[in-house]
Amino acid sequence: MSTETLNCGKRTYILESRITKNGHKYMMLTEKSFGRMSKVMVFHDHMNDFLAAMERVSQAEPLMVETSVN
User: Fold this and answer.
1) Which residues share a beta bridge with 2?
2) Calpha distance 26→30 (Å, rounded)
3) Where in the chain are the domains?
């Protein structure tokens, strides 16, 4: 298993390379922030599509987030 940790201000990102009991490789992405933890599993056979999508989104023009005032 390989692990890399990124400390970014109040957020910590942990990337782990893992393998299931039946031999399937996957990556676990964990975000720790403000006392909460979120996890995403990306299996090896989806990795190229996942990385390509991340590259497209990172290069795209950001969308404006609309906020409503109640």
Assistant:
1) 17
2) 13
3) 2-47
CATH 3.10.450.700 fits 2-47, yes or no: yes
The conformation of residue 48, written as its DSSP 8-state character, comes to: H
Whether residue 1 is predicted with pLDDT greater than 80 in this model: the reply is no
19 Cβ neighbours under 8 A, 6+ residues apart: 1, 25, 26
Owner of token pair 């909460």: 36
pTM of the model: 0.76
The model's pLDDT over 29-58, given as tens digits with 9 standing for 90+, comes to 999 999 999 999 999 999 999 999 999 999
CA distance 59 to 33: 25
Average of per-residue pLDDT values in the chain: 93
